[in-house]
Write a structure and sequence with these properties.
single chain; alpha+beta; two-stranded antiparallel ribbon; 6 strands; elongated; binds zinc ion
């Protein structure tokens, strides 16, 4: 592989990364994210209240206004939310696959 090819590849990688970060930022704080549970909590739906255990479960989280849903509530047709996987969730998933 020539230097030029390597350089082009590297630039492309950087551009993709920047685009991803920008889209996450512009997605704003009102966006819902799928993320591993870091601190045991429970689903904020009063009719659900499922316990989400740290290190074991996944949750769907919104920063502002802060809200936490279990994946079942987030996926619920009609009253669910649209969310995307967080970087942390992707990293954990990759690690899980590798081991
Ligand atoms: Zn729930």
């Amino acid at each position: 592989m020539s230097f030029k090819q390597r350089e082009a590849k590297r630039k492309k990688k950087v551009a993709v990364g920047a685009k991803r970060i920008a889209s996450r930022k512009s997605g704003g704080s009102s966006f819902w994210w799928l993320t591993p549970v870091r601190k045991t909590t429970c689903c904020s739906r009063t009719d659900c209240g499922r316990v989400l255990r740290a290190g074991k479960d996944e949750m769907v989280f919104r920063k502002l206004p802060e809200d936490v849903l279990c994946v079942l509530c987030a996926d619920h047709p009609g009253r669910g939310v649209s969310y995307r996987p967080s970087t942390r969730w992707e990293q954990q998933r990759r690690k899980g696959k590798a081991s």
